[in-house]
């Protein structure tokens, strides 16, 4: 009975990691907005997700050479603010809830700072109805007034963090990417370490994304839930057996961490498992 109870605790601990957690962004400067902030005038309010739009360009390898996209064909995609893609079609369009009617402050978002992202190595395979991605990295970047941002002129970009794709599910018109957050940026913006700008709710308090990983030994997880236009096949190269595709997307980015109680349950479960193993040996 004790072994069964221990296994149940471990299962519950892992099952509790999928809920979205609120975040706020600390810019180190008061760019305006309203008084509904998370941790003072230099921060946004608590936000549930980031809304984004982007364009993508992909190369599909026609593995069997039948000149149709079929099961087993592989895809490599790039997108976001990369190459010749325009910033106004590849950026975070909003943070929700918005600050309208007293909602959580945006602290001058888009007027004084902007978030964007890029990727060049998302890779997957066609399963007969859609491409299922299994790997790749999305880099998230900041353009800020302290780095020369004036709206029309982006100024210098600041690397914030990377999200590594480890899972992907798809239904018609909707895709969901999941994975981990890491590779936090270095340097300072308005006196704030770049790695401390994004903060996530953790129990009754909050931690920066980097602090969470350092404190718990676990990475912050993310989900990108997106709607996708049907990609346009723009060409086929018979010599290389490759299709080229273009697509447009709108999506929402959320972050998830296990709650402190979940981690405590996990710890108890693992301790119990270790004790049972020692007694058995």
Could you walk me through the main structural features you see in this protein, from its secondary elements to its overall organization?
This protein is α+β, with helices and mostly antiparallel strands and 281 residues long. The protein has 2 domains: 1-17 and 259-281; 18-257, no CATH class. It has 3 helices and 16 strands. It has an 8-stranded antiparallel barrel with strand order 2-3-5-7-8-9-14-16. The longest helix has 21 residues, at 260-280. The protein is globular. The two termini are 18 Å apart. Residues 1-20 form the signal peptide.
- Number of helices, counting only DSSP H or I runs of 4 residues or more: 3
* Integer tally of domains: 2
Strand-and-helix sequence, N→C?
HEEEEEEEEEEEEEHEEEH
- Helix fraction, binned, reads 10-25%
Secondary structure class reads alpha+beta
Count of individual beta strands: 16
Q: Round the Cα radius of gyration to an integer and report it.
A: 21 Å
Low-confidence stretches: 1-18, 263-279
Strand order of the largest sheet: 2-3-5-7-8-9-14-16
Q: What's the shape? A: globular
The overall pLDDT average reads: 86
**Proportion of residues in β-strands:** 35-45%
Span between termini: 18 Å
The largest β sheet comes out as: 8 strands, antiparallel, barrel
Question: What topology emerges from the helices and strands here?
Answer:
Layout: H1 2-15, E1 23-25, E2 49-61, E3 74-80, E4 91-96, E5 113-126, E6 131-135, E7 137-144, E8 157-171, E9 174-182, E10 188-189, E11 192-193, E12 198-202, E13 205-208, H2 209-216, E14 221-228, E15 232-237, E16 242-256, H3 260-280
Signal peptide: 1-20
Protein name: PEP-CTERM sorting domain-containing protein
Domain Ice-binding protein C-terminal: 256-279
